[in-house]
Amino acid sequence: MATEFTRWLGIDHPIIQAPMAGAGSTPAMTAAVSAAGGLGSIGAAYLSLDALAAEVAEVRSRTDRPFAINLFARSESAPGAADPAPMLALIARHHEALGIEPPVLPSMPPDPLDSQLAAMLVHQPAVVSFTMGALPAADVARLKAAGIKTMGTATTVAEAKALEASGVDAIIAQGSEAGGHRGTFFAPWQAALIGTMALVPQIVDAVSVPVVAAGGIMDGRGIVAAEALGAAAVQMGTAFLTTTESGIHEAYKAALLASADTATTVTLAFSGRPARGMRNRFLTEVEAVADQILSFPLQNSTTRPMRSAAARQGDIERLSLWSGQAASLGRRMGSAELVRRLVDEAEAVRARLR
Ligand SMILES: Cc1cc2nc3c(=O)[nH]c(=O)nc-3n(C[C@H](O)[C@H](O)[C@H](O)COP(=O)(O)O)c2cc1C
């Protein structure tokens, strides 16, 4: 599956394992995907600088192939509820059910982006990818001057054009099928729910840099379809969530594999930013009082102790069950084996089409 894009990155297959900050992706997954000839990614958005350094060291101890580190860029998010008390009271009931101390309103740490960007120059990954905003052109130029390739996430044509103008090397076109946080940073997020099939060719026509398709791609059929739309590569998240190396609880994996195409929705309930996940008890309760949701990242920090306890206990009713719309096509196998399977499947689809 070597292409101009894979040669440019020094990888064998145009398959990127999506960064999944929070537990989805692990250094073992990143290394396995990169060693198998894809591009593994570290989801670094929530990692302390020490934890990031440890993950980078672990990936490098397992493979010398290229990998990406992913960050959250800076962009405005919707204003949240002015009074945090009702949300704290709601979350307190879930803490009680989990048997943990009542929630407290966390203080807001300073934005980590500048120190994270400085760390990129130290760690020197092959690629820095980012979502939820455009980086200032000066930051992109600094990364490029250090020999690091950059990829920004767009959910609309206008976002793709803004990213191209900032100097990125490639654009990840994230369709509305995608699991996890929406990369949207321009339009109201409700207007930026464009399916992968509609989004990818419009972005391909609008920009001159390579476009990576993301959202709902689970197997060789999806990879060849993305190729047909003009994508240079695919980025897949949900497909890797059920692999051996994934950091999520077994109960979450089982829920993904048993889920229906209608199981997910885009919600602000867990973090204050729109993200696609499977409906569960917490999500449904918060959606019913959506005006009580706090802004990002406050809602995210406030729900973190609940989500962490739920993850330990395998309580899928209180966990953010991020998932794309095609989770039932997922498979249980090692991440490297999945890369090999995807390559074989894509080849079989191409042969069938010929
Ligand atoms: C559990 C999970 C966590 C995610 N975390 C991130 C992240 O930290 N950074 C990012 O750029 N994208 C993140 N994404 C989105 C992916 O990059 C990608 O857009 C998405 O997985 C593609 O859709 P799919 O899940 O249907 O493959 C996440 C996705 C999932 C499922």
From TrEMBL:
PANTHER family per the UniProt record, alphabetical: NITRONATE MONOOXYGENASE-RELATED
Needed co-factor(s): FMN
TM helices/strands, residue ranges: none
Reaction(s) catalysed (UniProt annotation): 3 propionate 3-nitronate + 3 O2 + H2O = 3 3-oxopropanoate + 2 nitrate + nitrite + H2O2 + 3 H(+)
GO molecular function, one term: nitronate monooxygenase activity
Biological process, per Gene Ontology: response to toxic substance
InterPro entries given in the database record: Aldolase_TIM, NMO
Superkingdom in the source lineage: Bacteria
Keyword terms, alphabetized: Detoxification, Flavoprotein, FMN, Monooxygenase, Nucleotide-binding, Oxidoreductase
UniProt entry tagged with the keyword Oxidoreductase: yes
Name under which the protein is recorded: Nitronate monooxygenase
Similarity remark: Belongs to the nitronate monooxygenase family. NMO class I subfamily.
